[in-house]
Design brief:
- The structure is a single chain.
- The chain is an alpha/beta fold.
- It has a single domain, classed as Rossmann fold (3-Layer(aba) Sandwich), CATH 3.40.50.
- It is about 40% helix and about 15% strand.
- Strand 1, helix 6 and strand 2 form a beta-alpha-beta unit.
- It starts with 7 loop residues before the first helix and ends with a strand.
């Protein structure tokens, strides 16, 4: 279960004022709104989530790096769990024009406002019960999603990823390596339910029988 980093550079480029996140607004109320995963979370004010999540091509380099690292074939079947508006899946179709993509997300708003090119391939659903047959995909990814589950849901989510994948798998989560990063994560997060160190995440993965790779973002 190797650690392979694809997005820390992208994550570190984002400007964050951790203290302001807590003192400038009623963070509890903001979290209540964010966890509805509606318009406010995706395209509302920054205190509720992304502050406007629009296509800007930033995920192209990630798709290219993943396709190269895992040696994905031109016609690979790719699943993104927690796909949001489908931007990463769209980039895979640009990198691998013959690939077949599928995305799953609990947010009806994200799916309704997804990139038009991939919208037909996105479905509503949860990571703990994937609506796909065994070994359906050559590459299964979940980017900054699984930490939004409660700890009692993680085992099933990892087992589901393992079940539907027949090739490479990669999971990216939010985590912390020290007390400063822990405090920043607590300040910044709005939807996180599972707060674990990298070693704890590795334990969950191994205990669940997950055999893919993983990486994480931290809030330095």
């Amino acid at each position: 279960m190797p650690y392979v980093d694809f997005i820390s550079k992208l994550s570190n480029s984002i400007k964050r004022d951790y203290v302001a996140r807590v003192v400038s607004h009623d963070k509890a109320k903001c979290s209540e709104i964010a966890t509805q995963y509606g318009k406010d979370y995706w395209d509302g004010e920054r205190q509720y989530g992304y502050g406007g999540y629009r296509y800007d091509g930033r995920w192209n380099s990630v798709a290219r790096a993943m396709a190269k690292h895992y040696g994905l074939k031109a016609d690979a079947r790719i699943l993104d769990i927690g796909c949001g508006k489908g931007y990463l899946l769209y980039e895979f179709t640009q990198v691998l024009p013959q690939c077949a993509v599928a995305g799953l997300d609990i947010s009806a708003y994200a799916l309704e406002n997804a990139k038009e090119e991939v919208k037909p391939f996105l479905s509503p659903g949860s990571a703990v019960k994937l609506p796909y047959p065994d070994k359906s995909f050559d590459f299964v990814i979940s980017v900054i999603t699984l930490h939004n589950l409660y700890n009692y849901e993680l085992r099933q989510a990892f087992q589901e990823i393992e079940r539907v994948g027949r090739g490479a798998k990669h999971v990216i989560v939010e985590t912390y390596r020290n007390e400063r990063e822990k405090a920043n994560l607590l300040y910044w997060q709005l939807t996180c339910r599972s707060f674990y160190t990298p070693k704890e995440w590795e334990w969950f993965m191994k205990d669940s029988g997950y055999t893919g790779d993983f990486s994480y973002i931290v809030f330095e």
